Amino acid sequence: MGGSADKARGRLKELAGKLTGDERLEAEGRTDQARTKARKAVRRLRERARGVMDSFGRS
Asked: Average pLDDT, whole number, for the chain?
């Protein structure tokens, strides 16, 4: 699944957990969302690193 789908799934899990009183499902939803956010941050960091490496390589 893509990042948007994972984030949406996390939101749905969190909401379902809140509505049903299932703390575990709610926590899973928050974890899924945090995981998606971390993956996005790593992806941005890699892109920046590639840009820096490219700029040094072209000098």
From this structure: 92
